[in-house]
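tool_call: predict_structure(chain=1)
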Amino acid sequence: MIITKTPLRITFAGGGSDMASYYMKYPSTCVSATINKYVYVLVKKRFDDKVYLKYSDNEVVDVKHIDDIQHDFIRETLKFMGVNYGVEIINWADIPTKGTGLGSSSSFLVGLLLALHTLEGRDVNKESLADQASYIEIVKCGKPIGVQDQYAAAHGGFNQMKFNAKKRETRGFGFCDQEIRDISENLHLFYTGITRESKDILATQTENLISNEEVIDNMHRNVEVANRLCESLSAKDINSIPTTLRQNWELKKKFAGNVSNPELDRIHDVATTIGGAEAGKLIGAGGGGFFLFWATDKKKLKDALADYQELPFIIDKYGSRVVINMEQLSW
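tool_result:
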């Protein structure tokens, strides 16, 4: 039996430039950080030839009929890995896993891949794990998404990620533990209570990145914002974070018409006026999920957003990892 633990992530700038419709033509930069909220995957071999799945639904299929599995990530991962034996897969998480904007789908896929590799006695490096997850999610499952979530989940930490047609690179900023705690102290996540299918927003964004010159120009500016943040954070200037969040939010709303709505705008306005937040933005594709705010007065912000649930967190420096390996212990 193998259990993996894979972090969720928050994003600061550059999101959207990690989509192939952009980075295959122009250099992309994204800045994100994983947090201490996780997706867990348990995988164990069975004595029979059945595949048992337990997530928000339950499935049982014969291993000879993997194509009958309804959960597309699990189905395509088992096929990719060439699994031909009975297996049980259980998934759970620290938060609702649908429509939150924290990258839970990619975290699940990265964790599932790591669990299966470990079950079969193979080591897999972070780069390969991210590449395989990206391939399954985007190519095999046809999701209109980028690649930064898979890299964040695999690598962990507070990172700058650069993508282009030839190379994918992930590099940290070298913050010590105290600096990470200081940054985390000023960041606050609030759940809007609105879930959404990111694929609809991202499909529109993908189309716009192909044909809409105004959206492409705004994405160029988004990458410039991300690059400036990388320079500031490399110099240990964390005061650049709220400026970046503010700029990114204004650009993000221009990528697709369904990124925000009057209720989401109201939450943002309440937080940045009554709540004293210096800046904030929706995490992920937009349309709902979690708002990320930068505020030094935690109580003032929490009082202003009393109708919304806060998700306390700190930045997590570790990527997907195996927390239980009963196969190894049984040796």
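agent: Residues 35 and 324 are 20 Å apart (CA to CA). Proceeding to next step.
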